[in-house]
Structure formats: C-alpha cells, structure tokens
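If you are new to this repository, start here. Below is one unmodified record pulled from the training split, so you can see the exact layout before writing a loader.
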Amino acid sequence: MKNFFVIFALFCAMFMISCGGGSDSSEGGSGGDTNDSSSCPSVDGNMWSSLSSIFMPLDEAIEYCEKLKECGYSDWKLPTISDLRTLIKNCPGSQTGGACAVSDPDHLSSDDWNENDCRCEYMENNGGYYSKLGDDDKVRLWSSSALSDHSNYWYVSFFSGYITNAGMDYSHYVRCVR
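And here is the target side for that same chain:
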C-alpha cells in the first residue's frame, strides 16, 4: 500500500509538470503568464504588454498594470505620454521628437498641445498604420501623464496618431510598459 501512494504521488507530480501546473497566472487580465519574453515586443528600449481586452477608466488602468503578470515579469506600469509616443509611426508631428510639444516631464500643459501638430490624417480601418505594434484605429491608450494645468490625463489614439487628453472617468485600452 505504501508503494501505491509513492507511485500515485509521483504520477500526480509528473502530471502537474506536463500540464503546466503551478505556473503564474495573469491577474491583469491578459490570459496568463507565458514566461516567454519574446511574446512581449520591445520598442526603443521599452518592453510592452499585450493590449488589454477591454476599455477601462484611468484608476482601473493603473491597477491593471500594477497587477499584471506577463512574459515572466510583474514590474509593469502604466506608460507616460512620452513612452506612448515611441509607439507612433507614420505621423511625424506626434512621434517622439515631433512638432507636438507634449512630453514628460516638463511639457504637459494644455499650452503645449496644438491639434495640428499632435495628429495626422484620420484613416478608418487603418490596420495599424499609425502603430508600431499594429494597434488599429479603434485603439486609444491611457498614459499616466496628467495635464499640469487641468485634471485630465494624456492619451494616444491610433485613428490618426493623435495625442490628446480626457477625464479620468473616460475608458480606453491599456498597454503596460516595463
């Protein structure tokens, strides 16, 4: 009988290992931790999480990133507007270093924003034309950067590479950064 329990325990342990038991799960809602950092893309030295599956207000976006476990990491944060600008392509004004003056830490006021400098042409169903990560025209991403002269927060919208702002109770998608 003792041998039966030893064999049964070994069988259970082997089954758990072969089925991936004991691996970390994602509390951020991304579908689990693959522990594979190659599935999290890097852009300009930052690693990016997968896109959240739902829209959420800012407070939930911050918590989402704080709890996220993805690609073997748990030190994710909500990106700044400068971080998000590194994801924009095909829109020279709103890409990093472009004419749009909005950036961390010193250019976050409404005076730093000019609609003509901070967007390009709207392209419906653009297939990720303005996003280095392929986010389409329906994706708007929260940043952790607050306007210095207002209670709104900056965000990026990929329908036109647009940098603008909204109140904390609006809902946007989230990509966390590390």
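Two things worth knowing about this chain: Helices lie at 2-18, 58-67, 81-85. The first strand starts at residue 42 and ends at 43.
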